[in-house]
Amino acid sequence: MSDPPNNAESANDTASDAKPHGVVYIVDDDEASREAVSRLVDEMGVPSQTFGSAEKFLAAYDGHRPACLVTDVRMLRMSGLELQEALASRGVHMATVILTAYADTPVTVRAIKNGAITLLEKPCRDLELWDAIREALAQDTAAWVDDQKRAEQAQRLASLSPSELEVLDLVMDGAPNKSIAAKLDCSIRTVEVRRQSIHSKMGTSSLAELVRQVIEAREK
Amino acid sequence: MANGSLSNDSSQDDSNQPADTGGVVTQATLSALSGVLNQAGCGLALFDPASHQIVDCNEALVRLFDAENRAAVCDRRLSDFCRAPQADGAGVEADISDWLSVETADEDACSQWIVTREDGSELTVQVSSTRADPSDSPLLLTAWVARDAPSSLAPQGTDSPDRFRRLVEGFTKEYILYGNDLQGNLTYLSPSVKAVLGYEPEQLVGKNWREFVPDEHYLASAEHYQEMAFQGRDTPPNLVEVLHADGSTRLLEVLPQPVRDRAGNILGVEGICKDVTQLKQTEAELVAITEQLDRRVHRRTAELQHRHDFEDLLINLSTRFINLPTEQIDEGLQDALRRIGEFIGVDRCFIYNIDDAEGEISLTHEWVAPGAPSFKEQMQGFPTAGFEWEIQQIIATRTLHIPDVEQMPAEAANLQRLYRQLGIRSAVNVPMLRGEKLIGFLGFVSIATSKQWQEEDIELVQVLAEMLVNARDRCQTERELRLSEERLRLAIETIGDGLFDWDVSGNVLYVSDHTLRSLDLPEGHNDRDPDRWRALIHPNDRARVEEALDAHLQGKSPIYEIEYRLKNHNGGYRWRHARGRVVERDANGNAVRMLGIDRDITDRVEQQTRLRGLEEQLVHLGRVATMGETVAGIAHEVNQPLHAAATFCAAARRALISGRADAIEKGVDLASKIAEQVTRAGDIIRRLREFTRPRPVVLKPVDFNAVIRESSRFMTQISDRHAIQLAFELEESLPEIHGDAIQLQQVVINLLQNASDSLESGGIAEPTIRVVSRLANERVELVISDNGPPCQIENLDAMFDAFFTTKPDGMGIGLSLCRTIVEAHQGSIQASKNQAGGLTIVASFPAAAEKAP
Q1: Which of A122, A129, A131 to mutate against chain B (most B CBs within 10 Å)?
Q2: Does pTM top 0.80 for this prediction?
Q3: Residue among B635, B640, B655 minimizing CB distance to A43
Q4: E strand segments, B261-375
Q5: Based on the number of CB atoms within 10 Å of its own CB, is B276 exposed (0-12), middle (13-18) or buried (19 or more)?
Q6: Does ipTM top 0.90?
Q7: How far, in Å, CA of A73 to CA of B640, rounded?
């Protein structure tokens, strides 16, 4: 084993002080490997769950986020890559660290395509795995927060009434209140009340903010 | 019987014949004989052959020599009186010596001598001689009879009966002189009749002699001779039995002569009688004794002849047996039995074989006289039980002689019963012994007659039995020898050995047809020029062969043995293995003759070369293939613990850096985990090294399930890659097998790989390999079956041949290696098509013996 450079170590050390959020799921048919990864994750102060096979994990996973999947490629029956694909097919986009003893090109390409954060060759160099898991957790947390927010905006957008959505669409097109009222054959006052209600439901205070949020919510 | 007849016959016999002398003659009888012979004009002399002197003589001889008296003859040399009729000039003494040598050799010889008498006249005499009695006396008794004797020498009594009569009466009482007339009435009897017949002469005169001859036979012959005398004919002496005064009879020898008057008319007869009763009795006794002797001699001669013939027959048979080819031995035995049987005159003779193990006897050879019954069929496997006494007897006394079945000893009751049952009257059995072991017996039986065998005949048949044993042994030995020779020849033919016989001194090399055949040379040209033969040796091998050969010829190596190449008739080279030895050396130790075997081993060498290459290739490819195919699996295996260790290491470091209260405790714990994983990695490396490095096969009890588990670890990547399901059904309480774990592992890996290869090639919905271990018939079985695409191979056994493959890039090594290893474990391996459409391969191994508790 080679000694890693010291400066990199200290930088990592400082960064590692912040306690990551989420759960680490460890899938490996080698018991020692499972335990080792679990102990490492332990040191991060993050909870972990270990599984001896992909099938067992799939059976047990309840969709908890944020989370990180650390899986071996070669296992009896379902492989790590197949597990990735199975999760994706369920709409779960969990940050994944792929471990493999023998990284050939086809395996690497497939893993990355499947959205793996990192593919590490066993045995990992010093804190490679530590860093990879932390990064994965951070990413997943971020992605999860993002997802949460997007979900909220979509929810707000969904709470608008049809008449409010008519007004919003016209507002998004950049039409002034007077032309909106004319188009909708209602009073300017009515338009103003509905715009007020939209801002209130969407949690926005300015036109620019509203437009950005609606665009973001609709992107999904 | 020519001897012993110097009886009274001679004195009354034709006086022209020489006296038949010889026989019982003593000095005393000489004097008694002298008188009678004197009257007959027959000279008698005792002659000393050593000095050629006449020791004593009678008056007749004195007269013959015309000497003055006996004193003028006695103590004189014979040569003084005689010479040989045809003198050869060697002198009279030499002639006498010649005569004596003939005389002593032939008792019946008689010779002629010319006697020169005192008056100068010469006289031819015939001389016969006999040894004087006792036989150790050196003297010869000689009788001299003159031929054409002058009248002075004629018997005096012939024309002077009175003088003759007086002479006789004067000195003998044994003679009776008598006369009778033409009617037979006695006219005169000499006084000696009293002494001979007990009558006074007066009592008889006037009586007819016929009254005194009671026996008709004698009467008739006496009448006959009297009649002859009446007719004036000479009569020979004849015997008449005459009544004695006491009523007994006497045998008289009578010589009648006619009595004539002056005119020549016959008036009657006069005769001389002699009492020959005693003589005749003695003579009769003698004749009887002689006859008896004759009979005995005859019998003895016959016996000797018989024995001689018998011995001749045996010698004849034995000579025949010696020269008899083995296959004719049985015939010879049969013939011997016939000839012996016919010679001895029995009804059957036979040979029984004794089977000790079975306690049986069997008739192996038999001759039966015409009309006699055969027991050949009947007497096979006849039990010996109950005949122990007889067998004991035959071994102890070398014979079992039963002259008559009705007089057998009580111990032989069983045999007696058997003989009666078989209708045998008498028998002789003699043992056939090999050393002291009774292997059979030779027997002779008579059906109807009792027969007392001569001891000598029994001895001879014992000799015969011995001879037959030898013949049979020889036959057996020869048969075995021939068989072993045959076997040797066959063996040599079969194993393809050629023979060579090198006459080193004569420089001729004999090679067998086999060698010639293997070199494509015509058979029959077996004598070869060694130098030209040597030129056929491959140039690269020649020096080596010469060196080995020279070393052996010089006695430096005990045997010449080499593998070399020899050019065959077609110019190609054949590998040969020669092995030979000098079998004869001269006084100087130079090789004279060398014998050996020269085999064509081309096939073997080629096969060996191929095999050696194949083995190397197989082992190498086997390892490389296994390693190559499983390198990913191996990397996975090795990396697993290293990965775990590295990760534990990272965890430990984080724990220690954190500086928490339990940091040290965690660090220590994790360090032990690290050590554990490093050890595990080391173990795997060691296992890999063991797997690949050349190592002796170590057979020890192996848990076969462990082997299967260990092997399948190498296979995970295969099943992983091709989504092949590995289903294990391992029988838990499987007995251990005796084997080499690494080699067995190689078998399992190869079989798994083979199964997965076939699954890989075809689109099978759920590719599965079933791996089963089980105990069946005390053998541990490994069953590996796949549900791969239908197998197209016809001959499934061929799958295990090297280089057999159906894969485009396959070498055909794996299964071949499997079979090699399995068979090295006393196991077997078989392939069959299964119901799932794929192949099932079953390898079975003998279960190791239970470990001692």
Answers
A1: A122
A2: no
A3: B655
A4: 266-275, 348-355, 360-368
A5: buried
A6: no
A7: 12
